[in-house]
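Researcher: Let's run the pair from yesterday's discussion. Sequence first, then tokens, for each.
Model: Starting with the first of the pair.
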Amino acid sequence: MATSYDYAPLFRSSIGFDRVFNLLENAQRARSISDWPPYDIVKTGDDSYRISIAVAGFAQDDLDITFQSNLLTVTGKKQEASDDGYLHRGIAGRPFEHRFELADHVRVNGADLSSGLLSIDLVREIPEALKPRKISIQSAPALTPAAPAQIEAQKAA
């Protein structure tokens, strides 16, 4: 049973969050058909994350990681191997693709393949221009009373 959420009330009280609502709607609509291979997403610090994907049987040349426009795509495709000699083939080697939508200012810091786990390190780097900054409050100089304006007129006799 699929549950659909109505985000219209949020549109009335928020401005500039269109992208977030689109992400929620897309995630709700396009659920991943296959969660193979399994993966973990871990928050490793205040502004750092790690995605670990179990890629047993895949070599470094079989994997591809691309990052473009806040979308991280991890694909795996094994080189064709002969089926000669196998009595049972239980280690899956089918092609896969995982897509991860990343927030603004999150970038890929590096990737490592070790012991059948592909680890991708991510870090959020907020530009200086977007970081909160302290605004100093200045007091205006005290207003000095100005001499009343003199209007020239002829003296009355």
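Model: Moving on to the second of the pair.
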Amino acid sequence: MTAQSFHGFVRLMALLAVTTALAACNATTATKPGGPVKAKTKIEVQESVGFTIVEDSRIGSGARGDYDAALAYLHEGQHEQGIAILETLVASAPILTAPRIDLGIAHRENGNLEAARAHLETAVESSPGHPIAHNELGIVYRQLGLFQEARQSYEAALSIFPNYHYARRNLAVLCDLYLADLTCALENYEAYMATVPDDPEATMWIADIKYRMSSAGE
């Protein structure tokens, strides 16, 4: 069992989700003078396992165009070009969380985990109610070997949206492969399967964990 293939799928879904979020920006966000920049986000639940993140912020058409161009580069695997545009965008519009998340993902894909960590930690600080930001930060923490921090990030994402099945499965994999916490792994795989019942890999992993737990008890 490996965690790598699933994390690639999470990246795609996160990009689609934050693209939707940026397209929905439509109002001015107020911040306290001298205080940290905070983004206003809300979750719009579309179905039991789906949601859209809406950021409450105003951006110009030029910024929207730049963002779309950056995403096009990222989807084509041209990370350097996409990163350059996103870095300019977050410098000019630091209130936006979506470009920060994409920067974190792009830097992670480019092998720069510390840069990914910095952007995702900033995203979480500015938008603590953003489950995608927490989930993506958890992936980076896991790749850095910070397993307890990864667990906290996944759990933070799930505390915001308990049916966030990507975070649920990431947490299960973490507990299984990296923390050797079979109880945590089983609980989260089963919770994941309650929302995604047709995942044959997860079905196999649950059976394997139950076998290991029963063997340990003999």
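Researcher: Give me one sentence on the second I can quote.
Model: The chain has one domain: 4-217.
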